[in-house]
Amino acid sequence: TLFRSDYRMFKMNFGYEKYLDLLPAKLRIPLTKFRLSNHHLPIVKQRYEHIARHERTCELSNLKELGDEFHYIFNCSYFKEIRQDTLKQKSWKHPNAVKFESLMGSQDKKVLLPLCTFIKTIMKTVK
Fold first, then answer.
1. Digits of tens for pLDDT over the chain (127 positions)?
2. Per the count of CB atoms within 10 A, which of 14, 45, 91, 121 is most buried?
3. C-alpha to C-alpha distance for 52 and 113, rounded to whole angstroms
4. What's the CA gap between 31 and 73, in Å, rounded?
5. How does 35-48 read in b/e, with b if 16+ C-beta sit within 10 Å?
6. pTM here?
7. What contacts 24+ positions apart, CB below 8 Å, involve 48-53?
8. What are the beta bridge partners of residue 57?
9. C-alpha angle with apex 11: 108 to 37, nearest 5 degrees?
10. Which residues contact 74 (CB under 8 A, 6 or more apart)?
């Protein structure tokens, strides 16, 4: 994939993030870790194993895509049903960088609660 998930995509301004007050800790913590790349997705975990970036692919699907935040939110076939049950279709259909930025930078509790639930599932599964 040509897309590079990066904190700068959704953190436009330096300052306190509203989502920290909107969400309960059990959902706020996984979202914060996901945004900061403090997780075990292949894009991060395999970096410390000195694996080339383009080889850090998802091990849960047969897509051979880079195992980054974008892949797990939008493309990973392993999470297809959970994605469809949790997130609104307009959030995941036709994925692109703008949708990723919109989801990850959202200040809307109605968007954040299902997103955080989905992210929590991803992080529990990918170890």
1. 444 456 555 556 677 778 788 899 999 999 999 988 889 999 999 999 999 999 999 999 989 999 999 999 999 999 999 999 999 999 999 999 889 988 988 899 999 999 999 999 999 999 8
2. 91
3. 34
4. 12
5. beeebebbbbebee
6. 0.87
7. none
8. 66
9. 100
10. 83, 92, 95, 99, 100
